[in-house]
Write a structure and sequence with these properties.
CATH superfamily: P-loop containing nucleotide triphosphate hydrolases
Structural class: alpha/beta
Number of strands: 8
Strand order of the largest sheet: 3-4-2-5-1-6-7-8
Largest sheet: 8 strands, mixed
CATH class: Alpha Beta
Order of helices and strands: EHEHEEHHHEHHEHEHEH
Helix content: 40-55%
Radius of gyration: 23 Å
Shape: elongated
CATH topology: Rossmann fold
Bound molecules: adenosine-5'-diphosphate, magnesium ion
């Protein structure tokens, strides 16, 4: 069984609603569930009528929730980077770290890394405490970028490792010629080199995250009966396939009560299981209303995964 699940799709299609309904349903079946919102515009707490934070809050029996504070993760990421740079280049007093880190705050990728490290942290810390961890995701643009981040970053890290290896080989050559050579402040072998070790560590973390998305997570994309959400779902599928990440199913949410209008979804996603949740006309106002959202078949598929 894939312990982790991600609900993807265009804004407003029902990611928060279906992930909450799924989490609630599973918890009522006796599974221990953690639901985690990664959306900077959090509204998971509103669905359950509770204030959520970076720490776990109990929503109902067997069900806890977290709203990831991305700003806090960005601050933590920058602080760790600072400590890392200080430790690695401690002999280099010329680097002005403050201005460097100020720029990093606005560097493309910082938010994506913050999401990645938050996911890594939650899964590492909580996997043993729960039968399921369900992620409610941010808008598609950010979601696709953080899902792609491990693959893209691994290419960079691979290049950096190669470059570092070359530097170390050159040092080794110089040492072979003159064992007394004073070119070496640091190591000349990969196993002794702090920077090489750090890069390898990052590579391992990124590879694990990629594996989490690729093999160990249940991914479902939500579509409504409108062309825009269908177009966005197709884009998500396509972008993920480029990363060798494959969705497990499609949820056709806010469907008309006769279940119609899904023909286009069926045509475009004929290889995938499609689960239909009918539009609840009276709206979803309280946590108890979540049982009105039809997700049992989706949950069955998830349990089989
Ligand atoms: N099956 C449904 N029936 C009726 N209203 C729904 C249904 N699914 C979602 N909604 C409503 O649609 C709105 C957007 O849903 P939400 O889960 O917040 O979307 P997202 O998280 O994808 O932005 C909310 O007001 C929610 O109550
Ligand atoms: Mg939402």
């Amino acid at each position: 069984m894939k312990k982790v699940a991600f609900f993807l799709g265009k804004g407003g299609v029902g990611k928060t609603t279906l992930s909450s309904a799924t989490a609630y349903y599973l918890s009522r079946k006796g599974r221990k569930v953690l639901i985690v919102s990664l959306d900077p515009a959090h509204n998971l707490g509103d669905v359950f009528g509770k204030k959520l934070s970076n720490k776990r809050t109990t929503l109902s029996p067997n069900l806890d929730g977290i709203e990831v504070d991305l700003q806090e993760w960005i601050t933590r990421y920058l602080k760790e980077s600072r400590e890392e740079i200080q430790a690695t280049y401690r002999y280099h007093t010329t680097i002005n770290l403050d201005s460097y880190l100020n720029i990093m705050k606005y560097t493309p990728g910082t938010e994506e890394y913050a999401v990645l490290w938050a996911i890594e942290h939650v899964v590492k810390e909580q996997a043993d405490n729960y039968d399921r961890i369900i992620f409610d995701t941010p808008p598609t643009a950010l979601t696709l970028r953080f899902l792609a981040m491990p693959t893209i970053s691994m290419l960079w890290v691979r290049e950096l490792l190669d470059m570092r290896e070359k530097v170390l080989k050159k040092r080794q050559t110089i040492l072979n010629l003159n064992p007394e050579a004073h070119v070496i402040r640091g190591a000349s072998k990969v196993e002794d080199d702090r920077i090489y070790g750090k890069l390898s560590g990052i590579q391992t973390r990124l590879a694990r995250l990629h594996q989490l998305f690729k093999d160990d997570s249940y991914l479902t994309v939500i579509i409504n009966p409108d062309t825009l959400s269908l177009a966005e779902a197709l884009r998500i599928r396509h972008e993920l396939e480029k990363l060798d990440v494959h969705i497990d199913s499609v949820c056709f949410n806010k469907a008309p009560s006769d279940g119609g209008c899904g023909e286009e979804v069926k045509q475009n996603f004929h290889r995938f299981p499609i689960f239909t949740s009918v539009y609840v006309p009276e709206g979803l106002k309280t946590p108890e209303d979540l049982v009105k959202v039809e997700i049992p078949e989706l949950v069955e598929d998830m349990e089989r995964s």
